[in-house]
Every structure is written in structure tokens, then in C-alpha cells.
UniProtKB/TrEMBL annotation:
One Pfam family hit: DUF1902
Protein name per its UniProtKB record: DUF1902 domain-containing protein
Family annotation (SUPFAM superfamilies): TTHA1013/TTHA0281-like
Lineage, opening ranks: Bacteria, Pseudomonadati, Pseudomonadota, Alphaproteobacteria, Caulobacterales
Record domain DUF1902: where: 6-65
InterPro entries in the cross-refs: DUF1902, TTHA1013/TTHA0281-like
Signal peptide region: none
Organism of provenance: Brevundimonas goettingensis
Length: 74
């Protein structure tokens, strides 16, 4: 592996969903909650790594989430 695998959850405030950015081929996610996103990533990443790259066993995957929100200061 030349670079570590990663999955990033990015918040889209207009759509109200978390969507994915990843270097795991075929991993495309869009969910309403971050918990659901992480659960689906953990479910599908191993299958895709095995099918697309022939990997087996423990494979490290970096997970991060980014988003933001506006506040009204009083």
C-alpha cells in the first residue's frame, strides 16, 4: 500500500447529510447521522478492500469527520 486508506465524513448543511470522501474504491456513502455513517463505513470498507484489492486480515483505515455550523452570538 503506497498510502493509508481513509474515509472522511463531510457535513452538507444544505442537504442535511453526511457524505463520504475516501480512497477506498467504490465506497460512497450519504447518511443523516454520523453514527450511521461510521457504521456503514465499517460494514462496507472490508468488503470493498477484499474485492477490489484482494486484501485480507486487519487493514488500518483512518476515519475523520468535518463540518461546521453557524451560531448567533448574543
Amino acid at each position: 500500500m503506497s498510502e493509508p486508506f481513509y474515509v472522511k465524513a463531510i457535513w452538507d448543511p444544505e442537504a442535511g447529510v453526511w457524505y463520504s470522501e475516501s480512497n477506498i474504491q467504490g465506497l460512497t456513502l450519504e447518511t443523516a447521522t454520523l453514527a450511521e455513517f461510521e457504521s456503514l463505513a465499517k460494514h462496507f470498507a472490508p468488503e470493498l478492500l477484499a474485492e477490489n484489492l484482494g486484501l485480507s486480515g486487519e487493514v488500518p483505515v483512518r476515519f475523520e469527520a468535518s463540518g461546521g455550523f453557524d451560531v448567533i452570538a448574543a
